[in-house]
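ERR on first pass: missing label on line 2. Operator R.T. fixed the label and resubmitted. Corrected input:
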Amino acid sequence: MNFTKKRQGFSLRWLALFFAFLLGANQLSAQQTVSGTVTDGETENPLIGVRIVAKGTTSGTISGNDGSFKLEVPEGTSTIAFSYIGYASLEIPFTGQSSINITMTEEAREVGEVVIIGYGTGTKEKFNGAVSKVDNERLNEYSSANFEQGLVGNIAGVQIVGNGKNPGDNSVIQIRGLNTLTAGTNPLIVVDGNPLTEGSSLSSINPQDIESVSILKDAASAAIYGSRASNGVILVTTKKGKAGELRVTYDGYIGFQERIDNFELADAYETAIFDADARNFGYVSGGLGRNLSDNNDTRDANGGGKRSRVQPFLQGYLNGTPGLTNTDWTDEIFRSARQQNHYLNLAGGSAKTDYSISFSYFDQENIIIDSDYQRYTNNIQINSQINEYIRFGVSSNISFVDANPTGERGWSDFNLGNQPDPAFAIILMHPYYPVYNPDGTLAVANQIEDNNANWDGPISGNVVATVKETDYTERFFRAFGNTYLEIEPLPGLKFKTSLGGDYNTGVAQFFAPSTLGNYRTPVANSRAMAFKSDTRRENVITENLLTYDESFGDHSINVLAGYSYQQETFNRVRLESQDFTDDNLRNIAGATNPTATNVSSKWALESLFGRIQYDYKGKYSLSASLRRDGSSRFGANTKYGEFASVSAGWVLSNETFFPEDGPLSFAKIRGTWGQTGNNQIGDFASIALIDQDNYVVDGSLSAGSFTRTSPNADLSWETNTSLNFGIDLGFLNDRLFVTAEYYTSNTTDLLLNVPVPQQSGFSQSLQNIGELDNRGFELEVRGRGMDLGPLKLGFNANITTNQNEVIALGTGQTQIISSNGGMGFLTRVGESIAQFYAYDIIGVYRSQSDIENSSSTPLPGTEVGDYIVRDANNDGQITPDDRVMLGDYNPDFTYGFGFNLAFRGIDLAVQFNGIEGRVASDRMVYFADSGEGFFVPSQYYFDNYFSDSNPEGFFRRPDFSSFSSAGRLTRASSLSVYDADYFRLRSLQIGYSLPASITQSIGIENLRIYVTGNNIFNITDYRGYNPDGIDTRSNSTQTLTRGWINSTAPLTRFMAAGLNVKF
Amino acid sequence: MKLKTYIIIISLISLALSACSERLELSPVTEKAATSFYSSEQELESAVTGVYAQLQNGGLYGLDLIGVGEISGEDSFEEIAANDGGRFGQLDDFSTNAGNDLVGDIWRESYEGIQRVNVVLNRITDIDYADPSLKTTRIAEMQFIRGLLYFNLVRLYGDVPLVLVETENPSDFFGQGRTPADQVYSQIEADLNAAIQSLPSEKVSGRPAKGAAQALLGDVQMTQGKYSEAVTNLAAVVNSGLYSLAPSTSEIFGPANEGNSEVLFEIQFASGVSGNTEGSPAASQFRPSGTTANAKGHNLPSTEFVDSYDDNDTRKTDYVGLDAAANPFYFSLKYEVSPTGINDGGSDYYVIRYADVLLKYAEALNESGSTSEVAQYINLVRNRAGLENTTATSQAELRVAIEKERRFEFIGEGHRWFDLKRFGNAVETMNKWFSENGKNVVIDADNLLLPLPQSQIDTDPALSQNPGY
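pass 2 clean. output:
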């Protein structure tokens, strides 16, 4: 069908007139017709859906299924323009010819590549901001449920961290450093125009459905998203169909993951030596008149308690008797785990309609036993040009997740700490105890009962039994997407209205039977417990955009005006009980008397925004934008905020003076200034909230209330103002492309959860005070099309630096000391955020005379075997003022590089990444290094602790029962701040495509087999599971105690074989 | 084409609409806001209940106030010094540092409680109660509790910041620093005197009556050495006829005996209520390790102490127990272990009971020179425990007799350390005990106060640390 219609008699004409003053459009008058075909310059296939317009007029059309078109050309037309996504646009002079047959070629040059920006697209030539893009192929070289993992090492300025322990868990994407202290650090993620709620699951998008991920790094680019943009904006575009016949693509892989971290615990024989030392030292140092030779009865009589007794069964281990129980709990908890993914895409289209439909199944076993994750997704994209003026589209993304996360996520709600966390609990499982009884049943309670009754060692149950006998499931159903209607009454003028939504439901169910013990609760006292939690999140957005895109001679402008309203409601209903008569019903239905809680929350955001982009001859470009946001989250006095940006660019290579035949094919300098905000403070932070605290009088409950949070009617946005300068250089016809960026950003009105004097009745208060600076440098180099005969070669490299400095905190406040798990962190004016802050250990007191002759008065309660603390302020005594800054988690620089090559049917892609100049602390490692008898010692601690048999040891003496007060204070110290640098072979993929001659005979267009791997090797001194696994439980742990690893899962290597078929 | 025009016009209109602010005025759905709360008698009553609820917390009468008053003394100890980060173990050998969690929790939860009181006192004046006398009573209850919390703070930490207003902006408190202890004591006395004026004479379950305020004021005065003033207040309680000792030492503690005639002010706990949230953690945590679920061996009476009971003393079996098969250490029977959950004991904690009033009265009389009247009150307590009258007659002998009787009567209840401090013999007693028991510990006057929490000094350097820390 031919869309071209006569303009005369159009009832829309009045509208054209209405806009004429604005648009300067020509009056319609006599015209002629031109027809022809458009074909692909390389394949010679017809190109369907090419946009063809008579420039400067309202007349336009689209090429049909055979690439043919017929265009009405009004009088006075001098140019006909052809444009098609992914192809170089063409402009053909019109001199009255009746037929034009042209070929279009795919856009090879970097500068012509489409850049996705907020509410629009651009090109490197015209767009002045700092945007990095990762396309589908690069993204999927790393095999994960979560697309953010595919970004690692691929682009400058982006760091991915987080302590997700389960497949599908979100990581935190950090763009250009930390711009906040206690507000959220999540960037805004916009999928096909739908801004997702902060922290919403990223694994509900299948990475294979993603066409590209564009990251708006500078404030000017992000400013169009206003109050949500100061952590950067990530624009995810999913795959759309292309006009043409149905193409069916299948991609699938199956492989295995295994842990490759360096964490290592002592075995039973070594642990026995340590255990005996810890018990003996603790006993002897706990009082006068105690001797090592005292037997357990004497020790009891002397008040030593259970921790001073030495288990008789240790003797066999100490003697080295072979064949004793020597359980490797690490091996019991971790496994080689399967991961597979199957993806099917059907895409195609006609001249007016394109579609893409995909299905996927992703299945990943956790490397922690008894935990897995399965995800089913369906993505549908349909776009249709109803007629010349109206276009509409539907985009839908549906996912269903059925997961069994590690049970501690359920247990943690019962406030049982880390004991049931399998990855952590291995340091609480003594290797003397077996996993299974001789009859093959689980030895549930050997350790807990023996320790509870006799030794007061780790009072925790068999963690393998806990994991296996606990049920924990999470099921999520999520559908998000949008529909739009786009009207183009005049060429260049578009009105788009869209309605989008995100509907997300989840059910979590937990059940632990009464047959398990948990901390200090042996099986006999144990009670079954269960909960069920139903959550529902509904998000609706409506957007109306008016854009005008036109050229007038050498001038071209693009104007955007928009309105957006988005609201979200959240609800959770939770039933919980520890009151079960028996274990028959393994869910909350078996509870006698469950308690119910209902939590609801909502927010709304209403915005007006606009942008003008101007370009002169492709040489000079200017752009300005403004957004006004109103948010329900902020105080009554500060509901609205404005965020502006301006930018300018100069393409030197389009100047006449620029040498045309030199090696430099493209050169541009650009600068931007912009403001963005951060509104991630929770929904009702500006209101003083009343919470419930009940009291019981004579056994009956009466409701009590108290003011939990302090009000702040002035609570408002954090405002981030940043400058960005960039240079783009293309060499050798852009085959080598270099982008360098330098930025400074300044955040004011910091949303600061300030620790306040507790006599106020509050421990913290959320305030807009303080100021923070960030600056950094980013370099990206990309080479492509470097062909050496049949060998095709491409490469990429990037490096990022970022530094932050606290400029001001609260009034009169010069520092914030926060702690997490005993490790202190200092955030001080003039320094970087969250410096590790602890005592600097310079040795061990090896004798009483060492203590007596110490150059400075040691900490109170210092005993032989305790650490020597450096007297940092040289005042002759060790006090809290001797804590020193020991580095921070923010790296000096991060880098990534890789290459890809293709030779005949073989292809290879390799990507490395690394981090330098970063320290971290890990709770599990420091417990295992602590010398407290409760924990199984790390191999490193065991090899290096001070004792009679190792008088040169640099770790403190083990002590179980009378751990000294000084020992407590030095528990987290300079010894527990670890070098967290690494260098990894992040991904590797080798493929072989069968020759077309073979595949086409069996009706297959392309058949490729490949092997792929993630984290093939990891070079690091770090002794924990994974230095990227920092605590992200709350905003403030993420920033003010950044670098603290509370509990994470081991780094894994993944190796898989895959198949890729196109029909 | 009409439709298209229509759509465009509508859309343009909607685009041009200015932001509509009502959509952005969202109120919490499942949480109440202070702006609209505290506006009726019912809501104020719930805020008053919230004050009592605070007293149940672990940092106050759930655990820490009992532990700090008991373990610091010589009669009770911590089975496993290193347990729970040494929060109680450090009290045992006076190695408490400013990072100790108990030090931080008592401080924080006391001030949270004081703030809850201040909110009620600030808001209640504008609220009409159906029965105006109830409003007066509630104000007096709040003054009593504020007095009690400040009394604990000033005894434990010395000079402490004095806050008597509802907080408008928490940042206003930066730079406030510590208020001298005598000013804090003046405020405590003012609060308690006001409470005495308004509290009813009849005790209502869970709430203080006039007698409780008089007894507490007597204690506050004795602690400052004002014995004759204390005599007046304590005599008022003793002579009121409203309180009497429970008939036997087995009928004082535990859920079965709650609300007996001996109780002047109690923190109520119950097990198995509201998802096991209303019980006390003391019962299980004050048991020797391995004897019950979540037993942590905090606050155990020493074997030496238990052995020092007279064999005829019913308290030897009614107040302490032993589960020798599981653990060789004694434990207090004053906290009944819950049948329902680990931290869910049902025994009320008696902040003030009549035996305490009697012995304090005896002490005040003795110290203010009315020696001849003292013995009768000691004997009331002794006779109930199955013991003969005391033989002490002189002031010095009676002093010893009172101290001894208090140890036997209040073992495990968190009085001993405050008694030692009030008697003025804490340093001497503890050092003697340490040297006799082979402990390498020597304390001095600095140890009489806890350190201020390091987190608070880190937050606001205007708060200075106590000497010796």
